[in-house]
Design brief:
A: alpha+beta; Alpha-Beta Plaits; four-stranded antiparallel sheet; two-stranded antiparallel ribbon; B: Alpha-Beta Plaits; flat
Chain lengths: 153, 153
């Protein structure tokens, strides 16, 4: 997962602000195109600013507090992400380095590259079975959703 | 609406160290519930930041690669669910039920963020047309990528 980090200033920006720089949009589009042509791109998305977000804080003893955004004090916000399937961490870092500077050339920005936990190499056998079961139910429900959408339209 | 439900911790896990078996079972049960509810679009767990990297984009086009672990970070992303829900309240209700395991000194937080959807895009001709045709934001991205490919060839 290549995570584009946000900051309080970027977090306030609306989609209109973000799409104002045609140059950056064009560079991003080209980069996304390169990722998909290389056959490594699994998913990509952008997240709304934290003005429309909520946090649930889990404290020791089972207490839970709900806090509404925006989270202006936060230094570790996520603006968006790509999920890519690559052979090594080095390959992922190379891809991340080729991305256009996410907030434009005049702003400091950061992309964090993180590895996914893969079931086989990480989890105990019983847990893997459970997760496979969840994956099966998820796919079943998703195809049901698609069928319903087709019927509806 | 699609939301990303992110699990954040203030301390990173030790590389290779698994949570106790009961924690896996609890989480497996919860995952099964959201899958059965037909709202689970995607999910993933991330490995500790010891296996991660950061790319810092500086003004002027300079890029630096920093290897993990990122010990100074207080809000580490450890995993997430992507859910299809009707309202933020629905997402909050589910998130509150998540069986998060943490030690007595650890803080743990779930952050719920909304995805950018087609309704949020500026009303260009393309967006207006796509909305009329009942298309989703992913369809618009795909079309744009296809056009970019056409322009390159």
């Amino acid at each position: 997962m290549m995570i584009v980090k946000s900051n309080p200033e970027q977090d306030k920006k609306t989609i209109e602000d973000k799409t104002r720089s045609e140059k950056l949009i064009g560079e991003m589009r080209k980069y996304n195109e390169e990722l998909s042509k290389a056959g490594v791109l699994l998913d990509l998305s952008g997240l709304q600013g934290t003005a429309r977000a909520t946090r649930i804080k889990f404290s020791p003893g089972g207490k839970k507090a709900v806090i509404d955004g925006p989270f202006t004090e936060s230094k570790e916000l996520v603006a968006g992400f790509w999920i890519i399937d690559v052979k090594s961490r080095e390959e992922a870092v190379e891809w991340a380095k080729r991305a256009p500077a996410p907030h434009g050339p005049d702003q400091e920005s950061e992309i964090e590259v993180r590895e996914f936990v893969e079931l086989e190499d990480y989890l105990p056998a019983e847990a893997v079975e459970k997760y496979e079961e969840v994956a099966r139910i998820r796919l079943e429900k998703l195809s049901q959703m698609k069928r319903d959408a087709r019927k509806g339209s | 609406m699609r939301v990303m439900v992110m699990i954040k911790m203030n301390k990173d896990r030790e590389p290779g160290k698994l949570p106790p078996k009961e924690a896996f079972e609890e989480m497996g049960k919860f995952n099964e519930q959201i899958a059965k509810a037909g709202i689970l679009l995607d999910m993933g767990g991330l490995k500790p930041t010891a296996q991660g990297a950061k790319i810092k984009f500086l003004p002027g086009g300079k890029k630096t690669v920093i290897d993990g672990p990122f010990t100074e970070t207080k809000e580490l992303l450890v995993g997430y669910w992507v859910l299809q829900v009707k309202t933020m309240e629905e997402a909050i209700e589910w998130a509150k039920r998540a069986p998060l395991q943490h030690g007595p000194d650890d803080e743990c937080e779930i952050e719920i963020r909304q995805f950018f959807e087609i309704e949020d895009l500026p009303e260009t001709d393309r967006v207006v047309e796509a909305k009329k045709a009942g298309k989703k934001i992913g369809d618009v991205y795909k079309e744009m990528a296809k056009e970019a490919r056409g322009q390159q060839n």
